[in-house]
């Protein structure tokens, strides 16, 4: 099947055979696709390889056969986003999240939009921690794991802003004691639902909550980017 002019981003690359690359790409209409870029590691393919970098919006022509596609052409869309320092680390975290949590060729148009928006916000210096929480929320929602952020999962009552809750995977928020290390205020859950950035305490609590949820959906596996992000977020 020929896929023409498909908006996409490169999430990950690795060498493939002598002169090629195996790419993991997030496409708008077909989800994550494994793509063989033939010859781009050779001298003649250097120009095309320079386009196949993270955070560069692309349009791809692909020939899809089975599990993998073959790259026919790639065109850059605008200049690459400048994500350096902590923002670059955050961008690579987004890439690892998408690769680890999505299946190949499983379309998620809303995920593509959320990913593109997250990169744009990181590139202009918006709050790193808040942009990661927003993307994590949107990613889980796109995959069918939408968060319950309005009502108590045990009794259905509206969340109370000053009350403390712990979020149980595949269940939702339930009241907890002040001594629970995973406690998050109801107001901070509502902020995440309403897309309003909470205060520093709330961001810290939401980071812990989202990490536990992502770890659950990964089957307990740790992400490599988490180790690097600890240092980046510690400086925020």
UniProtKB/TrEMBL annotation:
Domain DNA replication/recombination mediator RecO N-terminal, first and last residues per copy: 1-78
GO process terms (BP): DNA recombination; double-strand break repair
Listed SUPFAM superfamilies: ArfGap/RecO-like zinc finger, Nucleic acid-binding proteins
Gene Ontology CC: bacterial nucleoid
Sorted UniProt keywords: DNA damage, DNA recombination, DNA repair
Pfam families documented for this protein: RecO_C, RecO_N
Domain of life: Bacteria
Task performed by this protein: Involved in DNA repair and RecF pathway recombination.
Family per similarity comment: Belongs to the RecO family.
NCBIfam families in UniProt: reco (TIGR00613)
Protein name from the UniProt record: DNA repair protein RecO
Organism per entry: Dyella psychrodurans
Phylogenetic classification of the source organism: Bacteria, Pseudomonadati, Pseudomonadota, Gammaproteobacteria, Lysobacterales
């Amino acid at each position: 099947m020929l896929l023409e002019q498909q908006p996409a981003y490169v999430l990950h690359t690795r060498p493939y055979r002598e002169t090629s690359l195996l790419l993991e790409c997030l496409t708008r209409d077909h989800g994550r696709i494994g793509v063989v870029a033939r010859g781009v590691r050779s001298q003649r393919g250097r120009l095309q390889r320079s386009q196949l970098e993270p955070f560069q919006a692309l349009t791809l022509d692909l020939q899809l056969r089975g599990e993998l596609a073959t790259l026919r052409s790639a065109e850059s869309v605008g200049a690459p986003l400048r994500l350096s320092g902590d923002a670059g680390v955050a961008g690579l975290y987004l890439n690892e999240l998408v690769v680890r949590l999505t299946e190949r060729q499983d379309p998620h148009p809303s995920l593509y939009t959320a990913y593109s928006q997250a990169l744009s916000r990181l590139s202009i210096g918006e709050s790193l921690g808040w942009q990661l929480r927003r993307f994590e929320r949107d990613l889980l929602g796109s995959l069918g794991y939408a968060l319950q952020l309005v009502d108590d999962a045990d009794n259905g009552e509206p969340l109370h802003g000053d009350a403390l809750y712990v979020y149980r995977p595949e269940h939702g928020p339930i009241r907890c004691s002040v001594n629970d290390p995973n406690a998050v205020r109801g107001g901070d859950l509502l902020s995440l639902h309403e897309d309003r950035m909470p205060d520093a305490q709330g961001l810290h609590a939401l980071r812990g909550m989202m990490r536990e949820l992502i770890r659950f959906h990964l089957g307990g596996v740790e992400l490599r980017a988490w180790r690097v992000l600890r240092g980046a977020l510690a400086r925020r």
